[in-house]
Each structure stands twice: as structure tokens, then as C-alpha cells.
Design a protein that fits this description.
This protein is mostly beta strands. It is built from four helices and 19 strands.
């Protein structure tokens, strides 16, 4: 049911494969809890989580006096400890008269998963007939906002059972004059995090780190199950470290992949006007 309800969103969700893997393996908790404020209603449909990441699926609706433009804010708090978990990254879109959304929150696995979570939403909308106007969203005075709408739910303790697997490939390659080391890969049901070290043992200035990161821009993780099914996980986000870069990818750990490979197509100052981009990645690093 959930797979079909959120199927159209998965088509443009860069992390859609991770959610599909979770649903396929019943690694999901159906919530179906709602709250209202004025003409607006929010329903938390389902949640999935692991030590590193939480994904929330929700639906927003309004009565005939408003047309939903966006769910513009989704915040989470651990009710038991009062710890603010963060403001989520989110995507979504209209399906008929309702807004279907997916919010993602990266978690700190050094801290236990929350037992009970409060989700704090705000909905942005416009008056009837305004939604089709190309200028909608650019004129602040025409936007209407709901009061904060809060929904609480208990998180299934099953999400704490599967621990992060840590691999240390220690495989290196050259990008121009620079050595790049894939030092660590962390894999959990909803996330893969890869750590690269630039010029191990040396100090890199900001300009050098930026140059290497730009060359390292095209990469994905490819895994294969025992049945021969392939799963491709593009990079979702990344951030610099003191000595390199960390990239976050999706995951299909729940499908029990037998092999996991990092594939890279580094940009080594190619001239795009004279040299064709390669069809296949030129560097492959075995993780599992």
C-alpha cells in the first residue's frame, strides 16, 4: 500500500531506492496518526529508521479554503530527553488535493534511538486559484502559513536491532598528482557513508581539497544480491573533513547484497568540447 501511495514521489527522489528496499523488506512502521489546525491536517503515514538515519512519510491536506503549496518545515524532538533532533531535509509534491512528503533526518549513532518522537510541521498554502499562477511562491504576502502542527508517535524498537557494518577497504588511487584513499565505508539499512582521505600523511590546504573534491564529483555505489539483482546508489550529500571528504549514499543492506563496489568517473581536466565523457566509470573500488 505504501509503495503505491508514494510511487510517483519515488520517481524523482534520489534516495527512492533506499525507501523501496525498506518497504520491500518490511522494515517500516505504519503510524497513521493525524493532527489538525484550522483548515489543515497532517497525517504521519509511516516511518523507518536505523542508527544513522530516519525517514518519515506524511500527507498534508486542507479544506476548500486553501491550496497547499508546500510543507515548508518539519522538525523533530526526542520527547523522553527533550533533545532537539533537527530540521529535516524534505521532498514532496501534490497528489490530487493532498501533499505527499518524505522527510529525512541524519542521526548520531553514538546516541540511542528515541523511544518517542514529536514531529512539528508547518504548512504553506495559497488562496484558491493561486496555485497555478507561475508567480506563486515568489510573493511572500500571498502565502499563508498554518500554526505549528505537532504529532507524537512511539518508534518501534526493532529499528535499534540492526547495527552499522564498518568496512575498511584501504584502497587508494591517483587523481592527477594527488593520492586519494577510500579509508572507511559504513553501511546500515538506510545509509552508506564513505570516507576519503586526500594525500594521506600530508597537510592539504583548502584550495587543494576543493580541487580534489571537484575531480571526485562523479561516483556511485553498486551492489549485487545473490539473485543477481543490481542496485545503484548515487551520492545524496557530502561534506568536507580535516583530511578529505565524506559522502552519503543510499543503501539496500536489507536485500543482503553479496558485493558492494564504489564506482568513480573522475574529471581529470577533460575538455568537454573535444573529448567524450566515458560511458562507464574508470575506477572501481571493492568494498565487500
Amino acid at each position: 500500500m505504501l509503495r503505491f501511495k508514494f510511487k510517483s514521489m519515488a520517481a524523482y527522489d534520489i534516495d527512492g531506492g533506499t525507501l523501496e528496499s525498506a518497504i520491500r523488506n518490511d522494515y517500516i512502521q505504519v503510524i497513521n496518526k493525524s493532527a489538525k489546525s484550522g483548515p489543515y491536517q497532517i497525517t504521519i503515514d509511516a516511518v523507518t529508521a536505523d542508527e544513522n538515519k530516519l525517514i518519515l512519510l506524511y500527507t498534508a491536506t486542507s479544506d476548500s479554503t486553501q491550496e497547499i503549496y508546500d510543507v515548508n518545515s518539519v522538525r523533530m524532538t526526542d520527547i523522553q530527553t527533550g533533545r532537539y533532533l533537527g530540521n529535516t531535509s524534505k521532498i514532496g509534491g501534490l497528489e490530487g488535493q493532498s501533499w505527499q512528503g518524505r522527510s529525512t533526518l541524519e542521526l548520531d549513532r553514538s546516541k540511542p534511538l528515541p523511544n518517542r518522537i514529536e514531529v512539528d510541521f508547518q504548512i504553506a498554502s495559497v488562496d484558491p486559484g493561486k496555485l497555478s499562477d507561475p508567480k506563486t511562491g515568489t510573493i511572500r504576502s500571498e502565502m499563508n502559513y498554518s500554526e505549528r502542527i505537532k504529532v507524537e508517535f512511539d518508534l518501534d524498537p526493532k529499528f535499534s536491532l540492526t547495527k552499522t557494518e564498518i568496512y575498511k577497504p584501504d584502497q587508494s588511487f591517483m587523481l592527477g598528482d594527488h593520492q586519494v584513499l577510500l579509508s572507511k565505508v559504513e553501511v546500515s539499512p538506510l545509509m552508506t557513508r564513505a570516507t576519503f582521505v586526500y594525500n594521506p600523511g600530508k597537510t592539504n590546504n583548502f584550495k587543494t581539497r576543493t580541487s580534489i573534491s571537484e575531480m571526485l564529483n562523479h561516483h556511485e555505489i553498486v551492489s549485487e544480491t545473490a539473485e543477481g539483482k543490481m542496485y545503484k546508489a548515487p551520492s545524496i550529500s557530502g561534506g568536507g573533513t580535516e583530511d578529505g571528504m565524506q559522502y552519503v549514499f543510499g543503501s539496500n543492506m536489507l536485500d543482503e547484497p553479496q558485493s558492494i563496489v564504489m564506482k568513480l568517473s573522475p574529471e581529470l581536466n577533460r575538455s568537454k568540447t573535444t573529448v567524450q565523457e566515458p560511458e562507464e566509470p574508470v575506477i572501481e573500488l571493492k568494498i565487500k
